[in-house]
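Input record (Table S2, row 241):
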Amino acid sequence: MRVARSRTVGPVIRFEKVTKSYPGPGKPALSQVSINVDKGEFVFLVGSSGSGKSTALRLMLRELRPTTGRVYVAGKEINRLATWKVPRLRRQIGTVFQDFRLLPTKTVSQNVAFAMQVTGRSGRDIRRAVPATLELVGLADKGGRMPEELSGGEQQRVAIARAMVNDPMILIADEPTGNLDPTTSVGIMKLLDRINQSGTTVVMATHDNGVVDQMRKRVVELDHGSVVRDEATGVYGFQQH
Ligand SMILES: Nc1ncnc2c1ncn2[C@@H]1O[C@H](COP(=O)(O)OP(=O)(O)OP(=O)(O)O)[C@@H](O)[C@H]1O
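Output record (adenosine-5'-triphosphate complex):
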């Protein structure tokens, strides 16, 4: 079952000269950032701690609003969306974080089902979609387990299943391999790559040079809130010649 999507013309995500200042003194977290992400792209957002990666992701979700400039998702300027339309925007964006954020008192299946329940989907849809999505992430046999009975890599797969079960247009991942060892990280990156190959746009913030170098995807680097590099198939750091 696929959710009907509106047609998008142009980039799926567009930042137009976005500046974001938090209250208080200090430089803006983002300064005049312009980025376009096309449908189906896989983009790494890299940069040292405090460079503005999480701020950029939170602007895409309208958890934050730009101080100046415009953020468009699926062709709509999201700062101008009516508040009642924000849940619909967020349904089009799955999110995954470093710390998994699973509900500890619910089983794996219930964690994934919960993402559908909160959007008002029918029991019939949920019973169909949850096993299919657990299968997608390689956890078909773990639906009855509790999160604490799973390894870190498996917990992150559950979080990815929960992010994907509503068939979002965009997957935003903030340091998804940050708590995982290198081998487990490779498995998670293969899964994210597969999700991307099937049409979901992926934006991933990371410090993990190993995964960036291995994937050879687009790399956008932030430094003190400015884009200092945007390469179609990049590595984590500038290449040494
Ligand atoms: N809620 C906030 N209030 C005030 N300043 C903030 C807030 N969130 C972030 N900042 C500041 O904005 C800048 C960018 O932070 P941000 O979290 O976006 O960076 P980051 O690249 O994601 O860092 P990290 O890799 O450590 O998560 C930093 O200087 C940070 O201190």
